[in-house]
Amino acid sequence: MTAAASLSDITARIQKATTLAELDVLEQELFGRKQGLLTVAMKELGSATPEERIAKGKELNALKQECTSLLASRRQELSLSMLGSFGETDRLDVTLDLPARQRGHLHLIPEFIRSVEDVFGRMGFDVAEGPEIEDEARQFDLLNFPKDHAARDAQDIFYVDVDSPPDNRFLLRGHTSPVQIRYMQTHKPPLRIICPGKVYRKDADATHSPMFHQFEGLMIDKDTSLANMKAVMITAIRELISPNAEFRFRTGFFPFVEPGLEVDMRWQGAESESREGKWMEIAGCGMVHPSVLKNCDIDPKKFQGFAFGFGVERMIMIKHQIPDLRSFYEGDLRFLKQF
Ligand code: PHE
Questions:
Q1: What are phi and psi of 99, to 5 degrees?
Q2: Phi-psi region of 306 (alpha: psi -120 to 50; beta: other; left: phi over 0)
Q3: Would you say the CB of residue 257 lies under 6 angstroms from ligand 1?
Q4: pLDDT tens digit sequence for 14-23
Q5: What's the predicted TM-score (pTM) here?
Q6: What is the mean pLDDT of residues 96-108?
Q7: Centroid of ligand 1 to alpha carbon of 177 (angstroms)
Q8: Distance of alpha carbon 185 from the chain centroid
C-alpha cells in the first residue's frame, strides 16, 4: 500500500472514529515523530528529484492540512455529543440512600455553659474567668470567711504543695466566688458578670465529684435589690431548665452574702405529673456582704449588689433527670449520644 493510499484510508477512519481516544491513536499514526505516515513521507522527499519534490511536497502539505482540520472538527463533534449525553448518564440521584455521616457535638457540659452565657448575656452580663489554682485570700479571706471556718479544712480542699506564704496558701478553688473578688479588684461598678468554670472539692459519690463545674453571678450597681436578684435568677432558670419551674427561696448562710439564701425549684404543670414533685436545691445566693465590697475598694454606701452560685452538673441532672453525676465524665457514647 502506498503512503497516499494509507493516508486516504486514514481520513476515512478519522471521520468514523467514535471516541476521543481513537482520534489520539490516529493522530499518532499520522504525525508520530518517528513512524508517523506523514512524517515518513516528508522525510522521503529528500531523496526525490527536484520536480517530484515540488509536486509531492504540495500534495503532502495539502494532506497534512486536511488531516489536521479533520481531526480538530471530529474532536469537537465527539466532545459535544459526550457533553450532551452527560444529561442522560450523569444524573444526580437525590433519592439515593447513602449511609448517614457521623457528626460529633459538644459535650453537654460546655454546651450548657454556652447557653448560660447566652441567657445571661441577653440580660447584660459579661463572662469573666479566673484561674483554677487560687490563693486562700481570694478563695476565703476577702470573701469574709473567718480564719477558723470549717470550709478551709484540708479534708475538703485540695491545697497545692508549692512554696507559698503560710497565711496565703495556694489551693484548687472550691467555688467560683474568687472570680467575683478578682473582677471587683480590677473593675469599677456598675458591673454584671457570670463566671463559669471548674471547681474542686474532696467529695466523690453518685452526686459529688472531686471536679465539677459552677457558674457564679455578680451584679453591683446603685439601688440593686434582692427583688432584682430573684427576677434575674428566675428568668434564667426558667430559660435554662424549664418554663414550668416553681421556686422557693429560704435563708441560708454564706459568709460573703448578707442576707444569704438558698434556692429550691420543683416542677409544676405538665412536668410535675411525670416527675417527682419534691423540692430540689439548685443555687446559693444573697446580697454581697458590705465587708466584701470594702475588701475590693467599693463603697457599700454607694453600691450594693447580689451574687449567686449554681452547680452546672446539678442543673443538667435536674433538667434531664440524670441520676448519677459520674455519667458526665465516663465518656460512654451510649450516654452522651442521648443529648
Ligand atoms: N460559692 C457558693 C458555693 O459554692 C455559692 C454561692 C455563690 C452562694 C454566691 C452565694 C452567693 O456553695
A1: -65, 140
A2: beta
A3: yes
A4: 989 999 999 9
A5: 0.71
A6: 88
A7: 7
A8: 32
Please report where in the chains the cell 434531664 appears, as a residue: 320
Q: Does domain 108-336 have CATH number 3.30.930.10?
A: yes
Task: Judge whether 313 and 200 are in contact, CB under 8 Å.
Answer: no
- Cα gap 249→283, rounded to integer Å: 10
Amino acid (1-letter code) at residue 27: E
Rounded to an integer, what distance in angstroms lies between the CA atom of residue 250 and that of residue 286?
11
Per-residue pLDDT reduced to its tens digit, 282-312: 999 999 999 999 999 999 999 999 999 999 9
**What's the gap in Å between 260 CA and the centre of ligand 1?**
9
**Helices and strands (H, E) in the chain, number of each type:** 12, 9
* pLDDT tens string 180-202: 999 999 999 999 999 999 999 99
Query: How far, in Å, from the CA of 146 to the mean position of ligand 1?
Result: 16
Whose CA is closest to 184, among 339, 334, 35, 289?
A: 289
Which residues 6+ apart lie within 8 Å of 295 measured at CB?
142, 144, 181
Rounded alpha-carbon distances, angstroms, from residue 149 to 143, 145, 161, 283: 12, 6, 21, 21
218-256 pLDDT, tens per residue? 999 999 999 999 999 999 999 999 998 999 999 999 999
Q: Report which of 218, 205, 288, 231 is spatially closest to residue 254, judged by C-alpha positions.
A: 288
